[in-house]
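Hi there,

I know you've been waiting on this one. I reran it after we fixed the sequence typo, so this is the corrected version. Both the input and the resulting structure follow.
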Amino acid sequence: MALSVLAHRDELGVGQGRLFIDGSWREGSEGGVWTHIHPASNEEVTTFATASGADVDAAAQAARRAFDDGRWTSLKAKDRKRLLQRVAQLIADHAEELDRLQTLDNGMPVSFSSIYQVSSHIAADVFDYHAGWVDRIAGETIPQYTGSDMFTMTLREPVGVVAAIIPWNAPLLLFAQKAAPALAAGCTVVLKPSEYASLTAFRLTELLEEAGLPPGVFNLVAGEGSVTGEALITHPLIDKITFTGSRAVGRRILAAAADGIKRVSLELGGKSPNIVFPDIADPDLTAAAMMGMVSMGLSGQGCVCHTRALIHQDIYDEMIDKLATMAGMCVLGDPFDPATTSGPLINTRQLERVTGYIEQGREEGARLVVGGDRPDGELAQGNFVNPTLFADVDNRMTIAREEIFGPVLAAIPFKDEEEAIRLANDTDYGLGASVQTSDVKRALRIAKAVRSGTFGINGFTVMPNAPFGGYKTSGLGREGGREGIDAFLETKTVNIGLSDAAF
């Protein structure tokens, strides 16, 4: 019997999606339509309207009006805070539905979607956390520095209209990570989800509407990056662009932003190292975590997945065996089946890309320990790749340099701490990194020496109240924490003359 997700579509009541502009749902002005294909079965699930340049213009105009007339920024802080808290509560109330929608969006196993950092509960937490900032955004008074009879203070003001563009791999979390801080700061938003995972964004937008956000404060435009995204990043009414995705698109956004000197935040992926020393407390648990990060859930399709395993030579062979064992414990299958641990790649293009990298790893001399192939039977109709482990990888090989975005782990031996740090930093990326050791002093030395935006010691996570972002080509700016709010604020200095002679 062939794998099918259409019953879940019907159960969730998914229909044709539309654009949300200026407080109303509408079709695209040029009749454009995108067909959503499910990656686990390659079935046609539904269609949704795509935004033309004219639709993007309408959304940007609506967001600009909503910002300029003060319908959002002039609300009392307590009222804006309560609205965002209401959004958080609605997301929590619809948690099961949203998690299942995310599975229908991108094939993430529902067992993973509902409990990890990509779940609806985390999305609710992100909105709740940022709601707490609304009445805490404040300037400061500045001590008099010269002899002038002046009083100086600063105001923190919203940057304006925000274009938010999110990828397909974690639509629940990333919708919240973009929209929540922007709205908390007082900005208005035009959000574009990935065309490969828009269903969750449609439903979340309905919840924002239900919460009572004024018209124009939040707008949703779906469509392809080459049309909808390009119109959005080049629109003259956009003040800031926040984007999570590939380096290639990030470069295009920087170029487009240069014309209007738009503010930009970018999170552009990584090639994160996981450094393992012989004094780890539990080798089996360490191996499970290392292999699990690239093989469980979305099968390595995560920006911060630790895809380079740097293993001390004294335990290298032992850990390779354990990693291979853990890879064999992954369960590919129907993403709606609670027993499934690992999902498909998002589309056939990504499938070809990942299998191409695997073949390149073989050609360049890496030792294929396990995986490297695709499952047969009913799973052959989907975009599945078996968890893959390469050993004896040289850090100059392609599979160690480029972000594969698939279930591929490259194991690299090292002899001492100095070499481990050198290998960890020998990359164009700098998003995440970890070290596994019982030596706290060594762990802290390495944490300081490795150039990454987030560093884990005997574990790794991303929290909504902590800044997240990358060094080097992994991006610009931070999301989460105070830095995440600051990214959507401008600072205005105000000088007040205290005497007639002040000027």
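Quick highlight: The longest helix spans residues 77-93.

Best,
R. S.
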